[in-house]
Every structure is written in structure tokens, then in C-alpha cells.
Amino acid sequence: MVSDELTPHEEHSLLRIADGAEPQHDVEEAAVDRLQSLALVEQRGVSFGLTLMGVRKVAQLKRS
User: Fold this and answer.
1) Which of 20, 42, 54, 64 stands the most exposed, by the fewest C-beta atoms within 10 Å?
2) Is residue 36 one of the residues assigned to a domain?
3) Would residue 35 count as lying in a domain?
């Protein structure tokens, strides 16, 4: 697997974060850790938000 390809769980987690879900309730911690390592999400206080790369990835996922 190419390092920037996302698993279905990671895609789901990224989309949930994009929708404003709270990671501690709606998203797998391992998926969030990987999304952070790929610079797709970042910690914002007690929640997470998308980086510019994350916004682009979400747009790509929604088109496919």
C-alpha cells in the first residue's frame, strides 16, 4: 500500500472529522493518529480540524 492511501476506516474518520464529529466519540483513535501523521488533520483545542491537505482529500473522496 502506498503510504498516503487511506484505509476505509481512515476515510470514514476523515469524513467524520470534516463533518464536525468529536473524535473521542465518533472516530477511531488509530485512524486519527495516522491522519495526523499524514498532515490531513490537526489538533485544535479539544477537537480536530482539517488541514488544507485534508480539505483537498475530503473533496477528492466526495468526488469519487
Assistant:
1) 64
2) yes
3) yes
pLDDT band at 3 (very low <50, low <70, confident <90, very high): low
* Cα 4 to Cα 1, 43, 46, 47, distances in angstroms: 8, 20, 26, 23
For residue 9, pLDDT over 70 is answered with: yes
pLDDT tens for residues 32-63?
Answer: 999 999 999 999 998 899 999 999 999 999 99
Contacts 24+ apart (CB under 8 A), 35-42: 35/10, 38/3, 38/4, 40/14, 41/14, 41/17
Q: Nine-digit cell at 25?
A: 466519540
- Residue at 32 is within a domain: yes
Residue 15's domain comprises 8-59
